[in-house]
Request: fold
Amino acid sequence: MEIKGFETVNSLPCLYHSDLDILVLSDIHLGLEGSVTSKGGYVPKFQLKDIIGDIREAKQETDASRILVNGDLKNEFNKNYYTEKKEVEKFIKEIKKIFKDVLIVRGNHDNFLEDILERNGIKLRDRYSEGGVLFIHGHKSIDNLKEFETVVIGHEHPALALQDEIGVSERFDCILYGGTDEDADIVVLPAFSKISNGTRINETPKERASITNPQKPYKHIITKASSSV
Ligand SMILES: [Fe+2]
Reply:
């Protein structure tokens, strides 16, 4: 399926732009299991392996030579956990083997990331633009939207909450797309993380969609189900 110049990739929570030859995904939140465990919960570690598996599938499907992570590569913003640091380093080393070029945009969770990336020859960017498309995490207001045809953000972790007739609720990650007040199109990527919480867009008041135009409400497509913690 085509969305604003991007294509969906199987049922994965990412998009591919063939003209730019770039695979884009957001909100991986590496180290989330460790953060939950340190706060008294318990989630077994599985994200890193599964996420790399999904990225390999996306590479196989698209043959993209570049990947862009649109913010929140890692999870913990208060501390630099040793295990999280190791996971980030392993992730970077693995994706550098898969793609010719790795682009990382800063998210609000990406404190302490710059040094790890620099050691691996990657720059941490506040935003990246090419061919009229702006990639930015979306946790701050966006300047100069008029300069772009399309803006791609993450941050919101959009999901649909669906309930069956006996009241069992399931959350489905989804990609949102629509227009903005400044006429640029907008695409909101779901979280690539397997376990992060999502914004249940069908239960969220429209006023919360601050950068979208209420006259041009979001449309959505479902990617795949995920659980929440
Ligand atoms: Fe996030």
Q: What stands out?
A: The chain has four helices and 15 strands. The pocket of fe (ii) ion is lined by residues 27, 29, 72, 107, 155, 157, 191 (CB under 6 Å).
